[in-house]
Write a structure and sequence with these properties.
Elements (H helix, E strand, L loop, with lengths): L1 H27 L5 E4 L3 E6 L16 E10 L4 E12 L2 E15 L4 E11 L4 E9 L3 E3 L2 E3 L3 E9 L4
Antiparallel strand pairs: 1-2, 2-3, 3-6, 4-5, 4-7, 7-10, 8-9
Length: 160
Amino acid sequence: MYRRITCFMFVIFCLSFNLVNNVGAQTFKMLDPYIKNTEQWFVQVGNPILDEEGMAKPNLDIAKMYSLVIRNTGETLNNVIVEAYRNEPNSPTKYGLFSKPLGIVEHGKVAFQHKNFPVSVKSDQVDIVISWEDSSTTKNGVKIQGRKYKQTFAFGVNRD
């Protein structure tokens, strides 16, 4: 009887230790990157790329780190701007994470890469906003600015 109880307790201990290790591993990494694409853009939010000395590291009590890759899959565009926002619980306001003007972005090129940007652990959504313009035209000797466009990509984050 003593041997069965000891064996049972050992099995329970091994299973619970394995579960604790699995949960801890998932808090540091996303299992798969989040990818969204349209006719014009490929947007990927993934694990941080911590390949340089002195880069900010995640602090799991305050913020988690993510990476961002944006590729132009459509035509060449002008005055491209990339912005990122996060939400805050119980608030309709979105908080800016960064804003980066890129200028002209050619077809097929990686337009933007951010290796590690922090997102508060309180947040559960990151919005990536990409805005751009058509090429300018000239009509009757007057330069006409291109039409402005915007696409927003919403990503769920911090959902361990």
